[in-house]
Design a protein that fits this description.
Blueprint lengths: L1 E4 L5 E6 L5 H10 L2 H6 L7 H13 L3 E7 L2 E9 L7 E6 L8 H16 L3 E7 L3 H9 L3 E9 L5 E10 L16
Bound molecules: coenzyme A.
Amino acid sequence: MSEFILKNGKSLQYRKLQQGDEKSLSAFNVALSEKSRTLFMPHGYNNETLTKVINRAESGEDAAFIALDGERIAAYWFLWWFNTPFPVLGIGILDEFHSMGLGKQLMHHLIDLAETRGCETIELTTALDNKAGQALYEKTGFKRIGVVENISGDGKITEEIHMVYSIKPGVVPPPRKHDSPV
Ligand SMILES: CC(C)(COP(=O)(O)OP(=O)(O)OC[C@H]1O[C@@H](n2cnc3c(N)ncnc32)[C@H](O)[C@@H]1OP(=O)(O)O)[C@@H](O)C(=O)NCCC(=O)NCCS
């Protein structure tokens, strides 16, 4: 296990998402504030969907991680389609761990991973009113390229800002549907 150190000195261990994490991942979703859950609902949390999410993480199609505060998941972050040049990034942190520098460390973790893997871009979408997310993404080098329709894990379709981090200069990711792989 590796760890992240927060601004208050607390350390959180982290590891890859794996079989057996279904219940704690579902509990993580429930523990988010309503606002955070609206901003971060990457996929459904029923058993069938969680099995698919974990299978994809274990097979390497996605790269997915959890940070632990004791038994409880404090953060969940991932690169979907990590086996392609154009992965899609997602990041969610329990509210009590916001503004402690964790988001920035999670972003650098995923960017390093994508660069090492030889990916060409990293994409994400974020809600029009997600000021914290937009600030974090711009500070870590993502650029706004437009507004797209995003299909959330609960099936809701909303307009979101589409952002791209460039690894291979000049490469534009091919058009895609903005929904989850599961
Ligand atoms: C968005 C989120 C990941 C940010 O993570 P975080 O750990 O709170 O962010 P950090 O403490 O690492 O802050 C990173 C930078 O963003 C800025 N930032 C953080 N929250 C901010 C806010 N509410 N308003 C403006 N800027 C903000 C900080 O100033 C910081 O910059 P600095 O290091 O130069 O000071 C976190 O708030 C979260 O999980 N929110 C709910 C779910 C969500 O929105 N996920 C993203 C969906 S697209």
